[in-house]
Amino acid sequence: MNTDYDLSVIIPTFNEEENIAAIVEAVDDVLTASGLRGEILIVDDNSRDGTIGIAEGLAARKTNVRLIVRMHDHGLSQSVVDGFSHARSGIFQVIDADFSHPPELIPSFYEAIQRSNDVAIGSRYMKGGSIEAWPLKRRIISLGATAFGRALFPDITDPVSGFFAVRRSVVADAPLKPRGYKILMEVLGKGRWDSFVEIPFVFKDREEGESKLKPATILDYLKQCSDIAFFSLRHRNGAVWHEWKKIFSFGLVGISGILVNMGLLYLLTEYAGLYYLLSALIAIELSIMNNFFWNDVWTFKSPKNLRLERKLHRFASFQFVAIGGLLINLTVLYVLTEIAGVYYLLANLAGILIAFAWNYMVNRHYTWKSA
To answer: Per the UniProt record, which residue ranges are transmembrane (predicted)?
Structure first.
């Protein structure tokens, strides 16, 4: 590692002749203006246009610019990982070549890492972040990808961002298996990190050149998500493993709620002599209270949960979420049974699973969002 550099800016490229000179100049200007000693790594996938020639000229003129041409195993994520291995500083910044990511924010990422964060993530979905000039189809795809990512990293609003900075120690010796375009997911899932910060930014669609989003990219991403999930289960560490434990605990609490519900329904109907629907209402409410109690003291255990006024707020939220889950379950049951012709028990199982996902995600992100 060359300590002469504060920061290594990694720019993956493929057929970026319209953008490469401008983005390198913009990044270099930002580094100079902020007083950062930064190197710029252009990691190219053997472009077929004039990108390589332009990059060679930039590297010849600027001592802090290097070009790495990759002849095999092409892909944005693979290029970024190659950039990690060639970088000479202790902090890596990843930025797209097409000005989708604003270079002027690079100093903010560097400062965030300097403030003891392991990862700094540019977020389009937190307050202050947004996306400009995207068609509806691409927005839907992006939101879907983000939803999958947040299932693994619920505390991060934009885990599929391509604009991020990371300490060398996070990725050093990490068993990264880069594929597709979502390299940050791989870093978060397999790197060694404890703290992160998100920085809002406005994502602008590429100014020049052609978008490289293809259907195969979606399949690669789904494979990547499953690989990260199984990796966490095998190694039992990292952020994803801790989330799996919460999901498992939430599921066990749900099972306890079923037992409470069934037991009370039987006792109140058979021994207390109550009408079975009244017994069911009481049993449902007490099972919700049971589930809330155990989730509050176990699944999402936190010192903040001790405050009574917040506890009442969380209980009200949990109650509404549970009602929503019940409606989802019934809706899925009806639609699959009456419209799709699915056997009612299978339809009910699908409804339970979807309602479980709803209950967990909403409670995780809202009811116990700080746990």
So the answer is: 247-268, 274-294, 315-336, 342-362
- 353 in Cβ contact with 368 (< 8 Å): no
One domain for residues 164 and 72: yes
**Do 353 and 254 touch, CB atoms closer than 8 A?**
no
- Nearest-10 crossing angle of helices 238-270, 344-362: 120
Least confident of 75-79, 185-189, 205-209, 268-272: 205-209
> DSSP character for 198?
E
Count helices and strands (H / E) in the chain.
Answer: 12, 9
Share of the chain above pLDDT 90, in %: 58
d(CA 318, CA 304): 16
Closest-CA residue to 55 (of 33, 84, 26, 24): 24
Amino acid at 242: H
Is-contact 233 245, C-beta < 8 A? Answer: no
Shared-domain flag, residues 272 and 328: yes
Q: What's the DSSP call for residue 371?
A: -
Residue 235 backbone dihedrals phi, psi, to 5 degrees: -95, -15
User: Could you tell me if 130 and 204 are in contact, meaning their C-beta atoms sit under 8 angstroms apart?
Assistant: no
Distance between CA 252 and CA 320 in Å, rounded?
A: 20
DSSP 67-130: EEE--SS--HHHHHHHHHHH--SSEEEE--TTSSS-GGGHHHHHHHHHTT-SEEEEESSSTT-E
Tell me, yes or no, whether 182 and 251 share the same domain.
no
Which amino acid type is present at position 151?
A: A
d(CA 319, CA 287): 11
| DSSP-derived secondary structure letter, 363 | I
Mean pLDDT for the chain overall: 89
What are 43's strand-pairing partners?
Answer: 12, 68
